[in-house]
Amino acid sequence: MKGKIFAADTSFLLSLLGTDGNTDRALSEISALSLPLTLCSLNDLETLNASFMAEFQGFKEPGSSDLIESGLRTERKAGRLVYPPFNPGKAIARATGLSRWHTLAKGHRTYDVLLVAAALELGATDFLTFDERQGMLAEAEGMVVRGLEG
């Protein structure tokens, strides 16, 4: 897998670090990789905010966000999540272009476009997601999408 860089979206990270219907698939995908996931601060923000919102809305148990936050720290410390230098301004500029080309035709959400743009800025070759629409965007931009199969 030389030359591969694996990025992930919020749906994948929440399943990997928490417990939901895709957790087993996330664990299976991650165990098949020989390289860490390459992320940025935008991934952490969206993952934590989605977790906080699910807890606030009563979809997740009180304290479940603490487990997600702890999981991010633990995985980063273990080297399974890596955060190379990242310029959010470049990702936003790239996301604007992606939005112009893809959102009108496919209806992508802002943060989905931003995370795909960030993955591209980080040099990602593969994108792990359980979100079909976000996977279509990543694939349209040349990344191999993992997680949706099966």
Q: How would you sum up this structure, described in words?
A:
The protein is mainly alpha-helical and 150 residues long. It has helices spanning 10-17, 23-32, 41-56, 64-77, 88-106, 110-121, 132-140; strands at 6-8, 37-38, 81-82, 126-128, 144-146. It has a single domain, classed as Rossmann fold, CATH 3.40.50. The strands form two sheets. The protein has a three-stranded parallel beta sheet. Strands 2-3 form a two-stranded parallel ribbon. The chain is globular. The model has no long low-confidence stretch (mean pLDDT 95).
Task: Describe the structure using short key phrases.
globular; 3-stranded parallel β-sheet; mainly alpha; 150 residues; two-stranded parallel ribbon; 5 strands; single chain; 59% helix; Rossmann fold
List the helices and strands and how they pair.
Layout (H helix, E strand, L loop, with lengths): L5 E3 L1 H8 L5 H10 L4 E2 L2 H16 L7 H14 L3 E2 L5 H19 L3 H12 L4 E3 L3 H9 L3 E3 L4
Helix pairs in contact: 1-2, 1-3, 3-4, 5-6
